Amino acid sequence: MTNRRAAQRALAIGIVDGGEPEGQPLAELRELLRTAGVATAGVATQQRSKPDPDRYFGRGRLEELKDEIAASGANLVACDDELAPRQERNLESALGVPVIDRTAVILDIFADHAHSAEGKLQVELAQLEYNMARMRGLWTHLERLGAGRIDGGIGTRGPGETQIETDRRLARNRIAALRRRLERLERNRGVMRARRERSSLPRVALAGYTNAGKSTLLNALTGAEVTVADRLFQTLDPTTRSLELSGRDYLLTDTVGFIEKLPHQLVEAFKATLEETVLADLILHVVDASEPQERRALDMQAVDAVLEEIGAGEKPRLLVLNKADLLGDEERREVPLWHPDAVLISAATGAGLDELRERIEAAFAETLTEVELLIPYSEGGRLHELHEVAGELERTDRADGVLVHARVPSAELHRFDDLAVA
Ligand SMILES: Nc1nc2c(ncn2[C@@H]2O[C@H](COP(=O)(O)OP(=O)(O)OP(=O)(O)O)[C@@H](O)[C@H]2O)c(=O)[nH]1
Ligand SMILES: [Mg+2]
Prior knowledge:
Blueprint lengths: L1 H5 L2 E8 L10 H9 L3 E9 L11 H14 L3 E4 L5 H11 L3 E3 H12 L3 H31 L11 H40 L4 E6 L5 H9 L16 E7 L2 E7 L9 H6 L1 H8 L3 E7 L4 H17 L7 E6 L6 H10 L4 E2 L8 H13 L2 E8 L4 H11 L3 E5 L2 E9 L13
Parallel strand pairs: 1-2, 1-3, 3-4, 5-7, 5-8, 8-9, 9-10
Antiparallel strand pairs: 6-7, 11-13, 12-13
The structure holds guanosine-5'-triphosphate and magnesium ion.
């Protein structure tokens, strides 16, 4: 794949409105292209409040683009926004090179990085949905061509139209089949989740911008071996590991990263995956602290927006500023001032992880209730059950059973009502 793309040199184009962070324009699009294995030959921007509805850029700027394409040796144009089918078509015919949009680049990266059966199906579904919209665009375009002729007359149902109708029907069938298969997989995952829920361990989910270091943090905290890479969207499949803090087990889940303007087809297709985040009791929002302040603020907003969109906006959250090792002395003092409630860590060096562990425990401590229970010797199984939800137990052996002092999650308290010492 990468070989085919090695020959592709893209001119990155985008709208700027003057409010962007200083520095390299379209840095993220270039990063996406790099991850997809496409070189960036040049960057062209236009300052305007919103894209032109027909051509994305204005007419005059479009003329200049032709020269910039020739000068940079680009053989592809990559646009920072999702293009309407009409914009894409008009750009292609005006510029004479293929035009791809941000969504297509992200979908391509997802397709490359999908490993599990579910991930592959999710990506295929998102791609089909994306392509369907484009087929429809082409279809209405042809319809318009036909409209000039005598209605219902010869030539109004050309072979092109029939082919597109067929393609669309096939695509719709495939979309329906993919949805059914995903639902089946989801049900299976639901069963696994229910099993985990029965074990009633508190759940913590990692969320954050792509490349913030979520997988590195999962590995550092749990000894997992999730692949880490300096590429966007390295992780697509959720991974859950148990994490032990003061003798109590928690479940920690790493999952797909977020990005600004995350294609809605992907949010839709990855619903089941994103649910891991929705079901968590606590979300660790991992942020790359080494990003410039403006960039970091935008990334955090993008994460907020996605959390909101998937229905996890109200979940308890802990802000984790990662990559502290990349900060200079001055930044190390300044960055926490921007985020007074955050924990500053380095998943790479392990710095700050002890404080993070304490903060996770503290977040759950509020939901724990201290109890004293008497477990008869004949009910050894209950002791085990209690240990699962309460972690470390303080126990005293008595003649009539084991007297236990424990901190039990309030939601689980009812299970031990009968053992309470009056
Ligand atoms: N210097 C430094 N680099 C880090 C740290 N944590 C992660 N990285 C690097 O940042 C890059 C991204 O790390 P990942 O753990 O893959 O990030 P992620 O959030 O899981 O990214 P996606 O799965 O793509 O969403 C890798 O190159 C890591 O080695 C850190 O604390 N310090
Ligand atoms: Mg990852």
